[in-house]
Here is the input.
Amino acid sequence: MREAIRDAMAEEMRRDESVFLMGEEVAEYEGAYKVSQGLLQEFGPERVVDTPITEAGFAGVGVGAAMMGLRPIVEFMTWNFAMQAIDQIVNSAAKTRYMSGGRLGLPVVFRGPNGAASQVAAQHSQDYGAWYAHVPGLKVVAPFDAADAKGLLTAAIRDPDPVVFLEHELLYGDTGQVPDGEHVAELGRARVVRPGRDVTLVSWSRGVSAVLAAAETLAGQDIEAEVIDLRTLRPLDRATVLGSVQRTHRIVCVEEGWPSCGIGAEVIATVSAEAFDALDAPPRRVSGAEVPMPYAAHLEALALPDVETVVRVAREVCYVDV
Amino acid sequence: MREAIRDAMAEEMRRDESVFLMGEEVAEYEGAYKVSQGLLQEFGPERVVDTPITEAGFAGVGVGAAMMGLRPIVEFMTWNFAMQAIDQIVNSAAKTRYMSGGRLGLPVVFRGPNGAASQVAAQHSQDYGAWYAHVPGLKVVAPFDAADAKGLLTAAIRDPDPVVFLEHELLYGDTGQVPDGEHVAELGRARVVRPGRDVTLVSWSRGVSAVLAAAETLAGQDIEAEVIDLRTLRPLDRATVLGSVQRTHRIVCVEEGWPSCGIGAEVIATVSAEAFDALDAPPRRVSGAEVPMPYAAHLEALALPDVETVVRVAREVCYVDV
Amino acid sequence: MAASKRVEEGARELSPLASLAARSAASYEPMPNGHEQVDLGLPPGELLDIHRRMLLLRRLEERIGQLYAMGEIGGFCHLYIGQEAVAVGMERATRSDDPVITAYRCHAHMVVRGVAPELVIGELLGKAEGVSGGKGGSMHMFDPARNFYGGHGIVGAQVPLGTGIAFALKYRKTDRVCVTYFGDGAISQGQVAEAFNMAALWKLPIVYVVENNQYGMGTAVDRASAVSALHKRGESFGIPGQEVDGMDPVAVERAGLTALKHARSGRGPVLLEMKTYRYRGHSMSDPALYRTREEVQKVRDERDPISRVAELLVSAGVVDADQLKAVDREIRATVMEAVAAAQAMPDADPAELMTDIYSGGS
Amino acid sequence: MAASKRVEEGARELSPLASLAARSAASYEPMPNGHEQVDLGLPPGELLDIHRRMLLLRRLEERIGQLYAMGEIGGFCHLYIGQEAVAVGMERATRSDDPVITAYRCHAHMVVRGVAPELVIGELLGKAEGVSGGKGGSMHMFDPARNFYGGHGIVGAQVPLGTGIAFALKYRKTDRVCVTYFGDGAISQGQVAEAFNMAALWKLPIVYVVENNQYGMGTAVDRASAVSALHKRGESFGIPGQEVDGMDPVAVERAGLTALKHARSGRGPVLLEMKTYRYRGHSMSDPALYRTREEVQKVRDERDPISRVAELLVSAGVVDADQLKAVDREIRATVMEAVAAAQAMPDADPAELMTDIYSGGS
Ligand SMILES: Cc1ncc(C[n+]2csc(CCOP(=O)(O)OP(=O)(O)O)c2C)c(N)n1
Ligand SMILES: Cc1ncc(C[n+]2csc(CCOP(=O)(O)OP(=O)(O)O)c2C)c(N)n1
Ligand SMILES: [Mg+2]
Ligand SMILES: [Mg+2]
Here is the structure.
């Protein structure tokens, strides 16, 4: 997936000289997670810019550059550090088109890894999907596979609005087919990655892998789960989710982040209000534990949703051995 | 309500000399919204501290002071400006007890007006309730009336954990009875402010006034609404809400903020999962419009939930003239 | 290093206002080596232009204050009265293709850029034809066509934004310079320091202008800043700084020209501290009890930029008092017409609530 | 103003290491007026203590690096190897009731404070008896009982926290001083500037120590900071700064004593820039390709604080090489025992997942 993200950036930088990349360690180090490998060499230090460790400042610099029509890709080493810059992302980037009555748009992409990695503890493991998805004026993307990472990032870079692009460190090493040549996916479209008739399982980003594994297990137990990868958290593709629930009558939403006011809450609240009559069982969430992420490996594992829990809850909503 | 907040601070400062107030314009100016009137005079500049306009910095100073056992009340002139400090609130304050395995607790209160005021436009009108309620380690309070403002703020100051205290500028001028003498309310308890049997209406902070007005109208139409004031957004008093829905079988949640991943989403998702069989109608949300707040008065009015909409949606879930 | 650089003596004498205003003009601070002094050569017509521009800002803001008091304008409204020399002097030093960005006290900066007063007033009245369609209000006005980038409500946030604009100007290999304004309160914001560091590190074409009007809301400079000589705030980053009499439009213009030349030539940022003053409260709702009436009156009497220029024009025999009165009448009429034109605009359409969130129009 | 203050000459000669290390020792920068030089008077026993403390940190970190490589430690792990003179010198200058706070590179700062090595290792192994119960890991260790306040993972965030600790010390009218460490990368963080301003404005009892190990992750100082003399970063706030040879524990101790005395006497903050170096990568996963092996080797050969002190001890005839080897063996044994003790601790109980979120235990 690492290469898919790099290729999306490289191809857009070749196509459009107003696209550039900035962030900590993106140039000479080629990315703290080696996502920007080769970019400095190809595009030079004017278009691949190492910044000081000043998230508020360089996010603002990116937004300012976008005011002049450049198309900055602002990398946060991880999204945890973007809390320092969130005022610029929300107040300066997301709100300006509206505040200016449409006179000033901001084509800027903020990207980097989001959520838990491996034993990096509380300050380095937060999932920010729900916060950004809360905010009108932002588009929020969270791809699961390499093809989507490339297609959606390409779309994000070309998009005239600010996009928050949430990657996942634990997916960087994943391999997957990426279509040859230009590949642009559409923002705002979920995808049914596995069709099924008994229960709808919704997730995104790394959560999809747990859900696909659960679906596999469930299939062996005669439960055919339909798996939806949201791909974009804002705007949410309500139609795809609601359509699925109309067929399956059951839904479980799986997220790595904290549940309160999370993406799962939004999905479930939407389904409850808009597909109430279709539901044959309580709509359920499986989520990360409501704790700051612990360091110890065995505690960390307990803090994240696992395949067994997804299977169990899916069986519960199907009223199997409950 | 202004005076209730001031009195809570003054009484706690009298009681406990480790309590102090810091923030922009809190001392000589007596608060941008005159909430800290008289405090400088009574407690002097060492305990009522004007800060430079450096939210990240002074929030961090507050948290650091709490590390040494002081009990800082950190005022944000409005919560909009706390986006600059949110890293300190979340990463330094909320997570430290956990990260330290319980060795270091942080008794700090962050407070100030939240949400829309009057025509102050997008950057000054955001409702941050959902963001903070998302975060374990924080307690989040949003009082509606003067008595609660005093009782809950007193409790927040005495609380050993970081508390986010969300006031509302448009409620500052409201008057209301405050019990004489020491008045401490319990954090984490919702309150049924109007009992009813036909539909549960949930809100908090200024939203309660629209909901109470709607309940009044509905009563004239033979619908008895039960009105719940959440008062605390984290921890959420699920029991009170679920208990009410068990009786009324219908729920509408009303919030001034944006709906996506909002408090309403959490309330509805909780009710749908945990009181599914009790529900006789789709659980619904009424919320602020999903737009950065516009300046023009007539647009701003359209962006906020109004009594008519609450009445209409309540009638819909009661299946009256739908 | 920058702090130890020296500039030619005698800069003060170059301003025709300086002798008049010697009692209050602040002394000049060192400027970086290699700056030639710009010879302004001020023919009477130029001084008249300065006077007229400042007076327009004054009369416009006074009228806006009245409309606010009458309830026709809502929300926060921050007037520029007293600070006119800064916006006018800097605008005269700036090329029209040099981008400008400031905070919420932005009406004047827009109008000197050439935005029609009725579009500003229309915005304040929440009109469809207001410069932000009625959605932004007093604090959020933009006109990219005139290289004006707002109008920002979060103290200090426009400083990284302006730095990003400068980044883009360099990226595009232009010779344009971004002028970024902020207040004495804003200068302590961490992101301002972050921006200073990047601008100096990357030698960005930017002139930072701190409008030191002595107060951030109710807080006097020395209660908010450990060092109250704010032009020194760039020292830790090697950014040359200069203190300027911000009540003298000619001194402002000259300092602006020198600073812009420095930045335009690729030598990186400059920080200008404009010592100025606001006569009104911080915003319309501030009774300004943190200072005495006498303090305000003294500045009005001794340092008012409009009176100073008027005095000079009269004493130099360029115009007489009657002619100045005629100019004032004309400007008042212009403002009245702008108000009338704005009031006649239609209100923003309710359907506009849901547009301009994303590019597609919604 | 601070920048123009002058200090007595000859400070360098006071360090017994200085002559040995003259080839690499950085020259001293001006210190504020009114500081008396502290006469350290270093009997041999003191130098032995310094040596022993530094060696303990070295051996401990080396062992931690091995445990990481063996997969017994996870997550991010930042070693202190090379920088020992800073933690040891400052600790000797500090009173045990002076609070200390730093970033994620915190094992050494804890141990010099007196936290038992096995509690640190236990934490790294995720053990119940680890200093943070296995929940914090390498970056998040706290021991308020020993006046150690972390252990923070967000670059720069501990600087306002330390400033708040100093605020509390002053509020309580104590004579304690907070020592706040951060890196050369961290110094550009806006909140550091914000904290500097408040500390200077309020004259807080705090000593800021920037451990300039030349790199913030892979970025050399001069690629991240417009001015690479980091002790000047306080100038804009009037904070006196001093450059110190951070590879010389005696120079560190002396500078620390002077700075602490200044801060303790109510004269406000001081900024010490420790010129130091880390031998290992930024964290265990960094191959450190941004610098040459030769660069690292040269520092090891010429400036290594442990070798420098050892050389001095031997050349002064205090100990001989064999005795130093015995000390090393003893310290290695101590570390081995600490590892064994930590490994024998029980894992954090799974039920601990849901405790310590709030005070009630959950
Ligand atoms: C981050 C932030 N904090 C606080 C405020 C509230 N506020 C608005 S203006 C202001 C004072 C700013 O003073 P200064 O920078 O001197 O500008 P001036 O108003 O004098 O032009 C404050 C505190 C804000 N808008 N943003
Ligand atoms: C706000 C923030 N941004 C980025 C990071 C990632 N990061 C961790 S350490 C580091 C380098 C810090 O360098 P320095 O301050 O010199 O300290 P050193 O590691 O050299 O001790 C970076 C960029 C972070 N933890 N926090
Ligand atoms: Mg000001
Ligand atoms: Mg470093």
Remarks:
- The first strand of chain C starts at residue 100 and ends at 101.
- The pocket of thiamine diphosphate (ligand 1) is lined by residues B 24, 53, 55, 77, 81, 84; C 105, 153-155, 183-186, 211, 213, 215-217, 282 (CB under 6 Å).
